Amino acid sequence: MSKDSLNVVQQALNEDIGSGDVSASLLPDTQVSASIVARESAIICGIDYAQQAFSLTDDSIQINWQIADGDQAVENQTLCTLSGLASSIVSAERVALNFLQTLSAVATQTQTLVEKISHTKTQLLDTRKTIPGLRLAQKQAVKCGGGVNPRLGLYDCVMLKENHIIAAGSIKQAVQSAIEKYPDLPLIVEVENLDQLQQALVLDGITRALCDNFSIDDLAEAVVLAKGKLPLEASGNIGVHNIVATANTGVDYISIGSITKNIQAIDLSLRFS
User: How many CB atoms lie within 10 A of CB 147?
Assistant: First the structure.
């Protein structure tokens, strides 16, 4: 686990425990056994984060995981067993479950969509629409669900969106500026219609074009226009209701922000034996 990830877990513990867990302080210093159980089917992700929540609270807590990140859990399946001081386990419980529930939700939602387009060549990408502070964790969860991380942030890829292009004056000027300043970085250009796509197709140095909010018909035409010239990514209002139709057009990628921002936590429970 990276230092940044450990800091995220420590910050979450500091936020929750603060000056001390007053409820846990009422418990006797007794050793207990406990388990975390999935109350619904899910792709599990976030084990490292949950593990560290317990370890940073009390490194004497012992955990035996019976599942790995990326594995499918079924309803009422035991994910792990724990042993340690009752007070320590209850102090870390909520933070550990928060990470595990949230990241498993991302992985599960991602896998649901990936399976729907598995008959095509299209890959599912995530976006920067992540929960603040959980960028790396949610990116990991997307990978657990079978999705792809195209970029981590604003620093490792140039993406020219509508406002960049407006400010630069044109797609051509924006692309030329990007290539001159960052020749070694991937370059993605967002286009809002077929005319803009045709402008991008005659320019060198573009990694792929992002077709934003295209209709299915326009997307299919875009695939024909770009064939052999430029990979295409579809984005904008794509979800379970239309992802299959979108993938069937032949696009190379589909990016969906909802897999990290519109999630419902997986129902997990920690109980003492």
Answer: 26
pTM: 0.95
Confidence of residue 105 (pLDDT cuts 50, 70, 90): very high
DSSP SS3 for 237: coil
- Among positive and negative, which fits the CA dihedral 262, 268, 147, 132? positive
Tens digit of each residue's pLDDT (9 = 90 or more) over 125-168: 999 999 999 999 999 999 999 999 999 999 999 999 999 999 99
Distance CA 249, CA 234 (A): 10
CA-closest candidate to residue 68, choices 47, 96, 98, 86: 47
User: Which of the residues are catalytic?
Assistant: 94, 129, 161, 190, 212
Residue identified by tokens 């129902």 is 267
**Average pLDDT of 99-128?**
98
Task: Name beta bridge partners: 42.
Answer: 73
- Calpha distance 93→116 (Å, rounded): 34
- Residue with tokens 């890829």, as numbered in its chain: 157
